[in-house]
Amino acid sequence: MTQPRNRLRALVVGSGYRVRNAFLPALNLLDSRIEVVGIHSRTYDNARRAGQRWGVEAIKDPRTLRPGDIDLALVSVTVTNNLAVLQSIAHLAPGASLVIDTPGIGRLDDLARLSVFRKWSKIRVGEDWMNMPQYRLVGDAIRVGALGEVSRISMSEMGYRYHALALVRSWLGLLPPTSARSHRVSGGVNIEYRFRGGKSGEVREPYRQGEGSFTVTGSTAVLSGHPMGHEIPNTKGATLVRLEDAGGLVGFGIDGLATPMKIDLPHHAAVSAMGLEDDSEFNLLRIDGLSQVIASLWDTGDPVNTRYRLEDAVSDNLVSFAARGIPWLPAAAIRLRGGGR
Fold first, then answer.
1. CA distances (Å), 171 to each of 89, 100, 161, in order?
2. Model's pTM, two decimal places?
3. Of these four, 30, 231, 272, 321, which has the most CB atoms within 10 Å of its CB?
4. CA distances (Å), 130 to each of 9, 15, 17, 61, 185, in order?
5. Residue 100 and residue 77: Cα distance in Å, rounded?
6. What distance lies between CA 106 and its chain's CA centroid?
7. What is the pLDDT of residues 66-80, one digit of tens each?
8. Residues of the chain whose pLDDT is less than 70?
């Protein structure tokens, strides 16, 4: 991994659940590479409380910062407020990078103002869900050809909306969907996305956080598993498994391949010890995923985040939303210029 020459100076905008339980902890993991110089929120006292435990100064008015004072802004606010926030810190954009929480924009009329985002030198979308370490491991297995040519991905009760579509796409080389078929079921909607080359991705609801199952079908092998690596009875083919020691979870592995694969969790114990409001294992793994997104600003070899653009996130949001209400959707017509092809 390429290291930045100096610590990047970062401004965090927002003070809600995601900032307190994802962004600030992820930045703490990257402390050797990033210095958080301030946190700003619409309510100053909220920013002060959010930053206090991390030793981060609250900034009442971002206009006190000058161009060049920061190298990176991380924005996690209510999605409908993103554009207003970006306009308030636009003077900091030249030469600086932006990490924006997914899905980027929340209203159709915001599509006409995407130029506000393009003022920043680099943009990363905080899609931490598809970057959770166990999902990165599955993606690695697919990219090295361990399953052969992947033709189908199926998720049951483990994905929803744009997060699920982003994960499916990350396992298919970020191919955009060409169409989507859906039908309502008890507690949700089942959607089958179609992609070029006859590939498909099925997302079955209802969604249950940290539960369910997935299957990736390739030409030479099939990989299945529980999203948290727990055992699923009667699974055939390769399987995602948990790696644990006396202290708990230390990684994930894939059993049943010609060459076993694994991914370690070097920061998991440190995150567990942070005493976060949300200290669930699921959230701790999402923090790992968000740190991966942020690190992709200097890790140019990242196979997903350097290619997953704002336009991809916005399109995934629009497609997954529309597919819930339209039985057959020509998804290709919704792709934005600059997104995956």
1. 35, 22, 16
2. 0.95
3. 30
4. 26, 23, 19, 34, 24
5. 9
6. 17
7. 999 999 999 999 988
8. 1-5, 337-341
